[in-house]
Structure prediction request, 329 residues.
Amino acid sequence: MTTTFPAMVISDENGSHRAALTQLSLADLPDNDVLVEISHSSLNYKDGLAITGKGRIARRLPMVAGIDLAGVVVESRVPDWQPGDRVIANGWGLSETEWGGFSRFQRLKAQHLTRLPAGFSALEAMAIGTAGYTAALCLLALEDHGTLSQPGEFLVTGAAGGVGTVAISLLAARGLSVIASTGRTSEETFLKSLGASGIIDRNTLSAPGKMLQAERWAGGVDSVGSHTLVNALAQTVYGGAFAACGLAGGADLPGSVMPHILRSVALLGVDSVLSPQPRRNRAWALLERDLNRNKLIALTTLAPMADLPKLAEEIVAGRIRGRTVIEIG
Prediction:
């Protein structure tokens, strides 16, 4: 086993968070029960905030960044995990309170690991990553609410991003009519190749609007928040629902109760970080069953860890399309 290995470590620099590739040893890692050799991770919007320092994601320093990882168990002090087991981890405070996945090796808490579904390679699992897994959780929320059985159009905001691209593919796999909202209308051909039946410019949703608007959406998936989510809710048909999982456009919700009390519209909050294991397993089973592998490859770019600082700037600026897998091993 290698003596030292690279990791993307966030530290304090004159009161600001700064991330840099740093050489670590096994002795530097936390004293958790399972040692994993990581082969792949992925780049998410949250990772971009953590690495650039534009969001105070890390709650203690130093911190290894990366909210996702896929790899193989090397050592274990618990019977649930054995050397050779293929595992993934998403959320659970990785990159915040727990050392994360941008590292060749990591020691993790046993309860934070999920068995890699047999149908996925490590690369495919990280092409899905937290963004795609969150999209699956959103579909489960809409499914459990009964929304996916409603006729009509389904809206996906932030459509060219990680959550949006997977959400489009999963909704289209159900035979639903999907409208993609994006600020990059040049991506129309790409989004339609994922299953979108049409696109709208995000500017049509991002400005303040009326409390109730013409009904259009049976439901949808929102990763933007703020006025975009408020307008989407104001345009949702009677009994429809939106699953909300992000705040790329703002953490505020400057809206009204009118859609909820006059049209029975539901706002379903979706958290991926602390989602319980049974729900995680349902989400990964949904992905294994419904996600088109060819479409997954079409929306995925592979990059080395050395590119993380540049890619972090790109994803925060909204210039990353689809999913970016980081090759660790």
